[in-house]
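Issue 218. Parser rejects a valid record. Input:
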Amino acid sequence: MHSLSPDRIDALTVMDWLRDPDAVTVIDVRSPAEYETAHIAGSYNVPLNLLGEHTAQLAARLDRNVVLVCQSGTRAAEAQRRLVGVGAANLHVLAGRIPTYAAAGSQVIRGPARWSLERRVRLVAGSLVVAGVGAGLRMPKAALLAGGVGAGLTLSALTDTYTMGRILAALPHNRGPRERSVEEVIDQLPERRQAA
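Output the parser choked on:
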């Protein structure tokens, strides 16, 4: 086994587990649009916002090793924290990202290219800071915009929340495939194994 720690797991171990479909459930907690762009073959899309609202329902379907995946590990770690909070076990976060997984030689399904939510957050936050500083040269109070963005990002890091990402994901032009209901998401997951 190639695991890194009890909760971080490397691509080679995930690849080994995926050879036996009953050994693991890979859950990608990114948005449907991000998932559509590129995802691990055999993974299930359970967006973090939906997982957060229905954690106990989703955890009830998880009775094997679970690997949580996102763009950088932040959302996967948040999903892990929420699932542990309702008693789920055997939870692991994929070390590295999907490109790391693909580089290890495993299958990644690719769709239309879209920017990740985190990349869009960085673009919007950076643009607002630059605009605030630039406008502040002519109107000093406009520099408060840059300070507000900085304070929001700092608060987001301290509380480990993703408010700007949630706001951006809700905008019409950032939406990709339609959001599925919790019932549709739960129904896609493997059934619990029957006790022998």
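Fixed in the parser; the record now loads. The longest helix spans residues 117-136.
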